[in-house]
Amino acid sequence: MEPSSGVGAEKRPPTVDLVKDKNGTDQILLQNPKGASVKISLHGGQVLSWKTEKGDELLFNSTKANSKPPHPVRGGIPICFPQFGTRGSLEQHGFARNKMWLVENNPPALPSFDSTGKAFVDLVLKSSDEDTMRIWPHSFEFHLRVSLALDGNLTLISRVRNINSKPFSFAIAYHTYFSISDISEVRLEGLETLDYLDNLHEKERFTEQGDALTFESEIDRVYLNSKDVVAVFDHERKRTFLIRKEGLPDVVVWNPWEKKARALTDLGDDEYKHMLCVDGAAIEKPITLKPGEEWTGKLNLSLVLST
Ligand SMILES: O=P(O)(O)OC[C@H]1O[C@@H](O)[C@H](O)[C@@H](O)[C@@H]1O
């Protein structure tokens, strides 16, 4: 595979390599000139790993994850599309995370994309296979650009295009499993005072009180119309994740806690302590595309270290 363009300030160029996992599934390994890396599986277009230049993993991956297609890996960033959860007639979280995506060598131009020093790859999921058409009879193209910048920031730009003659609607979530020291020690800021739909109370609507979120039991909520930046503070590890999003008004917050974790065969009993899902999403108001229209959504993840 050709390395991506953008040889910039650093001596070493960013690299893009095709590798295989133990099941023979193709994966893409992005590395920036400083040695930070991102691994993406073509199965689901799922980011599996995001590492700092020191090699610290920033995304949670379950030790019990089943990486054999068609199972999505429990961890990383599965993409929920065109349905979130059970809000629709499709399988939980839609089919995109279970499909094989393709590497796209000539994606439609992304005018605002600055490639300087970035390692990036373009993937695509098309509706053309019979299975997809049977369960969701809409012709679409889902273009996904995953890029790793010189400063280690990870960006996912999604473009969904309606290439049919009738409109369709979809929901989307980047189901991001952050790796954390201990769920009882982290704080989530940016969702104070927002309304949310509580999946643990039949999707009933509540309003968050004024404080940052801390965690002491199972949580499964969709916060509505959030600001474009939310932050996960992990004091023990002295690190903060900043989640910046565009075109993604909602934020899902999920942790299964002890009882549900035990019921999930692909999650270790205690592993819930070391993960927190915070998803940039568009759920409450599905996105509708008329024929020929395109939607763009962007998620940018960065790490801030404190001393
Ligand atoms: O086990 P899955 O299909 O990956 O889903 C995990 C969780 O994902 C969350 O986003 C949902 O709100 C939860 O209800 C769900 O349990």
From TrEMBL:
Disordered, as annotated region: 1-20
Bias (Basic and acidic residues): 9-20
Keyword annotations: Isomerase
Entry EC no(s): 5.1.3.15
Enzyme category, top tier: isomerase
Catalytic activity: alpha-D-glucose 6-phosphate = beta-D-glucose 6-phosphate
Pfam family, one: Aldose_epim
Matches recorded under CDD domains: D-hex-6-P-epi_like
InterPro entries per UniProt: Aldose_1/G6P_1-epimerase (IPR008183), G6P_1-epimerase (IPR025532), Gal_mutarotase_sf_dom (IPR011013), GH-type_carb-bd (IPR014718)
Record family assignment: Belongs to the glucose-6-phosphate 1-epimerase family.
Protein name: glucose-6-phosphate 1-epimerase
Originating organism: Camelina sativa (False flax)
Record gene name: LOC109124533
